[in-house]
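Lab notebook page, bench 4
Experiment: in silico fold of construct C2
Operator: M.H.
Input chain length: 436 residues
Purpose: comparison with the prior construct
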Amino acid sequence: MPVKTHYERSGMKVGNYRWFIAFLLFAATTINYIDRQIFGLLKPELEVVFNWTETDYSRIVMAFTACYALGQLLYGKVIDRIGTKLGYTISVTVWSISAMLHAFVRSTFGFGAVRALLGLGESGNYPAGVKTVAEWFPKKERALAIGILDSGSNIGACVGPILVPWLLAVYGWQAAFLITGSLGFAWLIAWRIFYFTPANQKRLSKSELDYIHSDAEETTEEYTGNVSWAQLLRLKQTWAFIAGKFFTDPIWFFFLFWLPSYFTTYFNLNLKEPSLPLVFVYAGTMVGSIGGGYLSSWLIKKGWPVYKARKTALLVAAFCVIPIVATRYTTDMWLVVALISLSVAANQAWSANIFAIVPDMFPKKAISSVVGLGGMVGAIGSVLFPMFIGFILDHYKNSGNIIAGYNIIFLICGSSFLLAWIIIHFLTPKMEKAKL
C-alpha cells in the first residue's frame, strides 16, 4: 500500500517554494552545459582555424576534465563547510569568466588553459546542486528534483545546436563564446536575491518547512561539518557512488563532446545550420532526466523501499543504454537518431538516480564531499576515455574508416552502465545509511 504522510492524509496545502529552488538549479545547469557544449559544437570550425588533429582536440578535452575532476573534490569539501549559497556563487563566477575568455585565445595551448579554468569553475555545480536538493526536499521527491536539476544539462544541449550555429554564422566563433559566457552573471543576480537555506528563508511557509523535514531522520543536524575523505573512503556506500560515476560519466562526456562531430562526419551535416538531429537527441535527454527521477519517486510513493526504487530505476536505465550498439547496423540517419536518443535519455535517467542515492545513504553534512569525491573519480574516467577516443578515431580516420572507430566506442557505451549497476548492487544490497 502507498505510504502517505501526515500532510497527504490531512489534505494540508504544503506550498511550492522548493520547486522554485529546483528551477534555479535547473537554470544553473542549463547555463553550465551551454558553456560546456559550445566547444564540441564549434569543433569542426576550430579544427580548421587552428589545424587541430583528433588527438589535439582530445587533449584539450582532457585539460577540461582533469580540472573538473580536481575541482569536484575541492568544491565538495568547501561547499560542506561554507554552504551552498556562497559555494554556488564562487563556482558560477569562475566558470562564466573563463567561458568568455575563450574568445581571446589564439593557440591550442590557450584553449587548453581556458578549458582547464572552465572545468575548475563548472565542477561546483553538482556538489552544490545535490546538497541544495537534500536541504530542500524530502526523500520521496529528491530524485525528481535532481532530475529537474539534471535536465538543465539537456536543455543546454538542445539550445546549443540551434543557438551556436546561428551565432557562428552571424557573428563568428568569438562572439559565440562571449554571449553564452555572459549568461551566468544574470543567473547570479537571481541566486543572490532568492536563495537561502530553508530555515533562513522568510518566503517559506511553516507547513512547507515542516514537510521538507518530514523524513524520519535527525532534522537538527548541522549542514556543515568536518568529515574527512579517509572516513568516507572506508565506507562501501562511498564506493558504490564512485563506481556509478566512474563507469558512466565518461559516456556522457563522449555524448556531449563528440556527437556533433559524429553527425557531421557520418551524415555530412552543415555546422553553420541548426542541427535538428542533435536537437532530437538532446531533447530525449530531458525526458530521461525527469522521467528517471519521477520513476523512483513514484515507486517510493507507491510504498516501495527507497533502495529498491532507486535500484530498479538504475537498472531500467542501464538496459535502455544498450541499444546504442545497434547503430553500426544501419545507415538511416533518423533510426540512428532514435537509437542514440534512447541511450542518451537513459544516461540522464541514470544520472538523476545515481545522485539521489547520496542523500539516501549519507547525512547532510557529508553530501557535497561524497558528490565531489565520486564526481572527481568520474571525471578521471572522463580524462582517460578521451585518450582512448582520440587514439581510436585518429587510427580509423587514417585508414579511411572513422565510422568503425565510432562503432567500437558505442559498444563500450552500451555495456558500461550495466557493469556499474552490478557493482553497486553487490557493494550496497539495501543501501543502508552510512555511519560516520
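Observations: Residues 16-214+226-427 form a domain with the Growth Hormone; Chain: A; fold (CATH 1.20.1250.20). The two ends are 33 Å apart (CA to CA).
Next step: discuss at group meeting.
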